[in-house]
Every structure is written in structure tokens, then in C-alpha cells.
Amino acid sequence: MQSDIEIYVLSCPTEKIITWFEEEFSLIKKSTPSKLCTKVTINSNGHDIDVTILEKAAGKRFTSIWFESDKTPWENDISCAKQVFESLGCEVRCNFQGWEEEGNQDPDQWWRINKDEEGPFIWN
Length: 124
What we know:
This protein has two helices and eight strands, in the order βαββββαβββ. The protein has 124 residues and is of the alpha+beta class. The chain has one domain (5-122).
């Protein structure tokens, strides 16, 4: 189980992400600390999970969705990315191996899911 999960969605409006949270989980609270940042708390399987949605996190078109908990319903970033792609239909990218403090992974090695393909690629 990862300590947290972070994915990036391409050209996906925050309101569409919020609607998905409302359909998939219990949305406990929502705030907008800034024009580009929305924070929500969702409940999944009895666990409250804080989520930060940050627009323009990677270039102008990518929005970061950061689940700040090890209690998410997914085993890793890739399993989360797969569900988000199926639900929202927009390209999803995530770290290929998950974050490890001491890891030897290539920081540019990512996993991409879109309507044409799924698999590892270099994002730089």
C-alpha cells in the first residue's frame, strides 16, 4: 500500500473531477484555497481522505489529483489511474513505480493511459 497516490489528468475540468467524487465516494467537504487549487475530503470504505486538486500542475493542461492518504481504495498510482480513465475518459498519467525515498527509478519514467494506448513512457 502506498503512503499516498498522485495522478495527472489531461484537459479535465475540476468540476468534472468533483462530480466523479460525488458519484464514487461520499464527499464530506470542499474548499477552494486559490483559483487553481480545490481541496476536498472524501470518505472511502469508512476512511476520510484529503484530496488536493491542482490545475496547471504540469504545464497548462494537466491537473494533479493528490490523495493524501494510505487508505485509498487502490493498491498504487496505476490502479487509481485506470479507474479514473475509465470514469472520466481523459488521459491520465502517473509515476510508473510509485514514489520511494530511496528508489532508483527514473524520474522521467511515467505510465500513460489514453484512448489509444496504455503503458510506460518518458515524460520530460
